[in-house]
Design brief:
With 495 residues, the protein is α/β, with parallel strands linked by helices. Helix content is 38%, strand content 22%. Strand 3 and strand 4 form a beta hairpin. The longest helix is centred in the first third of the chain and has 20 residues, at 98-117. It is globular and about 85 Å long. Mean pLDDT is 96; it is low at 490-495. Bound molecules: nicotinamide-adenine-dinucleotide (NAD).
Length: 495
């Protein structure tokens, strides 16, 4: 067995061993094998990255915007060259299927394409003559050094939401990826440097809680973008805001899929299965509670149960796998404990899938619960695994009330053939991303990825024009110039 390498940080354009000595194993969730060691960087490592990012800021922010956009384009071309290797790296360290990995990388690349064009969103505006002889002009400028802290479930896509847009606007960046999926982040940052970004424009600091806490209070960091679980999002939001930083913190979810009696059942079942069990349920847009409006429930549950039993669970890179392992043994145990809680609370197990025999991988049998009461924990708490709860209700009003009672408001979907029902749902549902006959209503990169209620903290969303606003600040110049400047009226060659 070759020795397992310890990943480097990337500081000022060079691979830099972390000063902190602790490491964590990076595991392949399908085999439980250790594939690398990730350093648990501390405050000194974060400080070194901030120094490098600060040093790069003056030159990078004054680099013409077209040049910055061309660097982003070269980076995108390298992503295209390496797309198979990156997708395989996602499968290897996350566990999701190759299809899911490729799909998520494509979504990430869309954000890079958006970033290339983002400078088009920058032009300011002018109000002439706001007072006699006075004009007001609005400029957009970068913030400075910004940090991105990302979750395990989208090893490429979430970092790609952040740093291409941040840097094309003239900021410099410190990325702290999830310690569970650091290999893909390492690949992305290698490509950043191959693309010719100046040293220090994008820095990478590996680590966990300690590295995050150092970022939240580091004096040289102007803004923090975070995506992860709800308790950590609240901590990040409060701590970084108290340290005077601009913060955006996207959090957890519990997404409801409402099935109206007039829904096209076959298409609805396909959509629900893919929403709830794709990426083994480890998606913040995963459908987690089906709200079945009677009399649809018996037929719906029968079809869903048949599909859940037939899902093939296995390694993400094996052909034909529908559901891969979850990310870690502790997470598998947590999801299994929710399945036990569901049974203890009195919900009915309508279907339980099978997992590979005697595999050391972190597999969870896909599980469908029926007759779940909305107050049960499996209906309220984020499980983040291949577990789907069906709540039966008597009316659309009741369905919307069940969904709106959630502490979260990331996404919600309605399945119906009626435009009127869909419209009413759109008006009344308290969620930022709404699907109509779509189970994973992920917005395109140019639009905001926007959670409501406990799914997001901060005024802006993570992608699109809202990300451009988050990563830049405006300056208003109000100017009065002498109305009769020296030399006016004759000295100019134009006269
Ligand atoms: P997580 O909160 O455990 O980790 C996210 C980041 O925070 C990681 O970089 C991690 O190192 C760091 N972290 C973890 N614990 C910390 C602590 N105590 N103090 C400081 N930092 C800490 O989240 P995860 O398990 O990696 O990701 C899954 C979660 O992310 C789910 O809740 C999911 O809903 C959410 N998510 C949300 C969105 C969204 O757009 N709203 C998108 C993707 C994932």
């Amino acid at each position: 067995m070759p020795p397992v390498r310890v990943l480097p940080n990337w500081i000022g354009g060079v691979e830099t061993p972390a000063r902190a000595t602790g490491t964590l194993p990076v595991l392949d969730p399908a085999t439980a094998e250790t594939i690398a060691q990730v350093p648990l960087s501390g405050p000194e490592d974060v400080a070194a990255a901030v120094v490098a990012a600060r040093a790069a800021f003056a030159g990078w922010s004054s680099t013409p915007v077209g040049e910055r956009a061309r660097a982003v384009r070269r980076f995108r071309e390298l992503l295209a060259r390496d797309r198979d290797a990156i997708a395989r790296s996602i499968v290897r360290e996350h566990g999701k299927t190759l299809d899911d990995a490729q799909g998520s990388l494509r979504r990430g690349v869309e954000s890079v394409e958006f970033a290339e064009g983002a400078p088009a969103l920058l032009p300011g505006s002018t109000m002439a003559n706001v007072s006699r002889g006075v004009d007001a002009e609005l400029f957009s400028e970068p913030l400075g050094v910004v940090a991105g802290i990302t979750p395990f479930n989208f090893p490429a896509m979430v970092p790609l939401w952040m740093f291409p847009t941040a840097v094309v606007l003239g900021n410099t960046f410190v990325l702290k990826p999830s310690e569970r999926v650091p290999l893909t982040a390492d690949h992305l940052v290698r490509l950043v440097h191959e693309a010719g970004f100046p040293p220090g424009v994008v820095n990478l600091v590996h680590g966990a809680k300690e590295a995050v806490n150092a970022i939240l209070t580091a004096p040289g960091i102007d803004a923090v973008a975070f995506v992860g679980s709800a308790p950590v999002a609240r901590h990040v939001y409060a701590t970084a805001a108290a340290a005077g930083k601009r913060v955006l913190a996207l959090a957890g979810a519990k997404n409801h899929l409402v099935v109206a009696p007039d829904a096209d059942l076959d298409a609805t079942v396909d959509s629900i299965v893919s929403s709830a069990f794709g990426s083994a349920g480890e998606r913040c847009l995963a459908g987690s509670v089906v709200v079945a409006v009677e009399p649809v429930a018996d037929a719906l549950v029968a079809q869903l149960a048949a599909r859940v039993r037939s899902l093939r669970v296995g390694p993400g890179d094996a052909p034909g796998t529908d559901v891969g392992p979850v990310v870690r043994a502790e997470h598998r145990d947590r999801v299994m404990s929710y399945i036990r809680v569901g049974e203890e609370e009195g919900a009915t197990v309508a279907a339980r899938g099978t997992i590979p025999d005697r595999s050391p991988g972190f597999y969870v049998p896909p599980t469908l619960f029926d007759r779940v009461h909305p107050t049960m924990r499996i209906a309220r708490e984020e499980i983040f695994g291949p577990v789907l709860a069906v709540v039966r209700v008597g009316s659309l009003d009741e369905a919307i009330a069940v969904a709106n009672a959630s502490e979260f408001g990331n996404s919600a979907s309605i399945y119906t053939r009626s435009g009127g029902t869909a419209r009413m749902f759109r008006e009344r549902i308290q969620a930022g991303m709404v699907g109509v006959n779509i189970g994973v209503p992920a917005p395109p990169a140019a639009l905001p990825f926007v959670g409501w209620k406990g799914s997001s903290y901060g005024a802006l969303a993570a992608t699109g024009a809202e990300a451009v606003r988050f990563f830049s600040r405006t300056k208003v110049v109000t100017a009065r110039w002498p109305s009769d400047p020296p030399g006016a009226g004759g000295t100019s060659p134009m006269h």
